[in-house]
Amino acid sequence: MSVAGRTSKVRLEDCARPFEPGGSFADFLSTLPDILKAKELKAFAAEIAEAAHVKQPVILMMGAHVIKTGLAPVVIDLMERGIVTHVAMNSAGAIHDSESALFGVTSEDVATNLQDGSFGMWRETGDFINGTLTRVMDKQECGFAEALGRGLIEAGAPHLSYSIMAAGVRLGVPVSVHAAIGTDIVHQQPTMDGAATGEMSFRDFRVLAHAVAGLRARSVVMNVGSAVILPEVFLKALTVARNLGHDARGFAAANFDMIQHYRPNVNVVARPTLGSGRGYVFTGHHELMLPLLAAMVREQLKG
User: Fold this and answer.
1) Does residue 25 sit within a domain?
2) What span, in angstroms and rounded, lies between the C-alpha atoms of 211 and 59?
């Protein structure tokens, strides 16, 4: 048999090329191989760009590590440009978001502070988050993220431009926070009110469910760094949307993480796109992957 008649997976025209210094970002993208994950990342960036172009939902779900690795400005830029239409985070994300805006620092040394019991016992963080949720619950109809975003604005947080929650209020882009009681440092403090935390997080579940109900062909959902909370919450929100008669099918879904886990791959990528839609899985560090993806999307929209 001759190799001429064989179907081959790799063609030389798909190979990478060395990047020439001084070139543009578009030049750099053109040097990437059109093979495996490089090809898929380009395709997923095109999915997001198309969704933004035709004004379809792009839902970004994220773990707290996204903020801890310095990516809040990238997320906020995507919100400001109308690319990301909803941000959902766990309540650890709300902690890092609040601390960044209020204090200009976040993320303590857990191993060291655990030894003397000081881990997570920072009064200002608990007072702001727990106090805001308790104060707002009976006075306003907003949820967890909006309450904290407005609280940061009203407090004149000195680093407000780094807050995703405050950006959501400023831009009118829905942000939701999904808490699991007992998982976060503010839950171990005397200001913790389980009723307020549960009620405000439940309101944000409804906010997310409303966003999920708008998913359709050419919409996008992406999960970045949440291994359990957001994949579980998303699956239930999708069930509610479909149970109420919303189609919520045909969208593209992707999971980005440093290590791939069962729930994100099944609950975000596989099950929701079964029979329709497209699924993607990318492994890599958030501080590299998310800025690269955002830049690729912006480059596509520029054209």
Assistant:
1) no
2) 8
> Which residue range is the domain that position 70 belongs to?
39-302
Residue 138 burial class via C-beta count within 10 angstroms: exposed 0-12, middle 13-18, buried 19 and up: exposed
pLDDT of residue 119: 86
Q: Is residue 57, in this structure, part of any structural domain at all? A: yes
**176 DSSP 8-state letter:** E
Tell me if 17 is assigned to some domain. no
Helix ranges (DSSP H) in the chain: 25-31, 36-53, 65-68, 72-80, 91-103, 110-115, 123-137, 144-154, 164-171, 194-213, 229-243, 262-263, 286-302
* CATH classification at residue 265: 3.40.910.10
Task: Decide if 33 contacts 197 (C-beta within 8 A).
Answer: no
217 falls within a domain: yes
φ/ψ of residue 16, rounded to 5: -70, 160
Sheet with 252-257: strands ordered across: 175-178, 86-90, 58-62, 220-224, 252-257, 278-283
pLDDT tens-digit series, residues 135-194: 999 998 999 999 999 999 999 999 999 999 999 999 999 999 999 999 999 999 999 999
